[in-house]
UniProtKB/TrEMBL annotation:
Protein keywords: Aminotransferase, Pyridoxal phosphate, Transferase
GO cellular component labels: mitochondrion
Source species: Protea cynaroides
Ranges for domain Aminotransferase class I/classII large: 52-417
Family matches, as SUPFAM superfamilies: PLP-dependent transferases
Protein name per Swiss-Prot or TrEMBL: Aspartate aminotransferase
Length: 426
């Protein structure tokens, strides 16, 4: 009987395609995914045995010794909450206190929008999750709309709106010739976009270029978007980390609110509190009134439910512990300014080192730009030379993470850049 069952199973497998042997072909057609252009840099860096290797591709803060940092305010917040939290689920909308403090940071302590309860907001899985929630919300409730994305932008923005099945268009932003803002073309693109389009904007420290509009340019952008009835969605991943002043870094959002825009905003505590792995962020949408805000929040929660059900607990307790305590908040403000100042200092040092080497090129853009990243103007071929000849790792678009630059390696980096650029202009 046993041998008969074996024979029958073999026949079934051959005739119907079912069985053990056929199972291996279920995913045989799946090709390996392309490596993430940013994460792939770190993989290559780690595999390099050279003692002189430098990683200026990482999108996370490092101290002047090139080491990861945990802020003192974070450690103190953890000390206060340790042993006091349970492991129960958070509501779909997340930690209410965290959301409240986060909205104050973006919209202002005394914002009338907060008092009137006109903001729909939920805790999100850092900035990426906040963007994805909004993209799905846009697709569900404005199904015929498109999203205008700046050229260039953080590469994952394209993935987020693509996977949410929102059609994408682009608008001019960076001008390679000046290594600055292509303001005229940007304004033309806003004017030419169909009325009621969605525009993705970086609130501060534009990634990857480090090029931000001036306050006056932000006012003109806001005005033109209002005239056209466009919806501005801000990705604010670097509040406080850009200039060292959270209020200054939120200026663009405040300008748009003064002009009466309804905006969306993605916030993250990855960079400005160093909570990278905690995945703590917030999505907020300004609504017409409290009733609309309640409805919008309920729908955001419904979108989150099948996606990840509810957000993580630990980081969501760290944030309000810091922002809700005057002493800890002051400590955070000091520490985030310290991080910003180190980045700004490394910009100055890199520029000065290049100039001392006698470079015939202008490196003014290094200090004109702001935030974690410097859009160097290096070509992909020059970046390849930096990697192959000098063991310096960065993305091939020439984006330098200033967090990876230290007093110990800035001279070596400047010399390498000088070597690959001195034979021709960028």
């Amino acid at each position: 009987m046993a041998s008969r069952n074996i024979i029958c199973r073999g026949i079934l497998s051959k005739k119907s395609g079912f069985g053990i042997r056929s199972m291996s072909s279920w995913w045989g057609h799946v090709e390996p995914a392309l490596k993430d252009p940013i994460l792939g840099v770190t993989e290559a860096f780690l595999a390099d045995p050279s003692p002189n290797k430098v990683n200026v591709g990482v999108g996370a803060y490092r101290d002047d010794n090139g080491k990861p940092v945990v802020l003192q305010c974070v450690r103190e917040a953890e000390r206060r909450i340790v042993g006091k939290q349970n492991m129960e689920y958070l509501p779909m909308g997340g930690n209410v206190k965290m959301v409240e403090e986060t909205l104050k940071l973006a919209y202002g302590e005394n914002s009338s929008l907060l008092k009137e309860k006109r903001i729909a907001a939920v805790q999100a899985l850092s900035g990426t999750g906040a963007c994805r929630l909004f993209a799905d919300f846009q697709k569900r409730f404005k199904p015929d709309s498109e999203i205008y994305i700046p050229v260039p932008t953080w590469s994952n923005h394209h993935n987020i709106w693509r996977d949410a099945q929102v059609p994408q268009k682009t608008f001019h932003y960076y001008l390679p010739k000046t290594k600055g803002l292509d303001f005229e073309s940007l304004m033309v693109d806003i004017e030419n976009a169909p009325n009621g389009s969605f525009f993705l904007l970086h609130a501060c420290a534009h990634n990857p270029t480090g090029v931000d509009p001036t306050e006056e340019q932000w006012r003109e952008i806001s005005h033109q978007l209002k005239v056209k009835g466009h919806f501005p969605f801000f990705d604010m991943a670097y509040q406080g980390f850009a200039s060292g002043d959270p209020e200054r870094d939120a200026k663009a959002i405040r300008i748009f609110l003064e002009d009466g825009h309804s905006i969306g905003c993605a916030q993250s505590y990855a960079k400005n509190m160093g909570l990278y792995g905690q995945r703590i962020g917030c999505l907020s949408v300004v609504c017409q009134d409290e009733k609309e805000a309640v409805a919008v929040k309920s729908q955001l929660q419904q979108i989150a439910r099948p996606m990840y059900s509810n957000p993580p607990v630990h980081g969501a307790q760290i944030v309000p512990t810091i922002l809700g305590d005057p002493d800890l908040k002051n400590l955070w403000l000091q520490e985030v300014k310290g991080m910003a100042d180190r980045i700004i200092g490394m910009r100055t040092a890199l520029k000065e080192n290049l100039e001392k080497l006698g470079s015939s090129l202008s490196w003014q853009h290094i200090t004109d730009q702001i935030g974690m990243f410097c859009y160097s103007g290096l070509t992909p071929e020059q970046v390849d030379r930096l990697t192959n000849e000098f063991h310096i790792y960065m993305t091939r678009n020439g984006r330098i993470s200033m967090a990876g630059v230290t007093t110990g390696n800035v001279g070596y980096l400047a010399n390498a850049i000088h070597e690959v650029t001195k034979s021709g202009s960028k």
